[in-house]
Amino acid sequence: MNKKKIVLASTLAVLLAPSVLNNLPANHTVQAANTQLIGTVRRGGAATVDANGNYVRGGYLGNFTSWRLDQRITIGGNPYYEVATNQYVDATAMNISNGNQVLNPVQKEVSYVNAVKTITGSNAVVVNDNGYSLGVTLPNGTSWRVDQYKVINGYPYYRVATNEWVKALNFTSDYNGTNNTTTNTNTNVLKTITLRTNSVIYNGQGQNTGKTLPSNSSWKVSQEKNINGHQYYQVATNEWILATEDKNTSVFSNGATTGTLAKNIQLYNTASNSMTRSLSANTSWKISNVVENSAGYYFAQVSNNEWIPLGGSVFSDGLLQQELANSATYEPSFAISLFK
Question: Where are the transmembrane segments (predicted)?
Answer without folding.
Answer: none
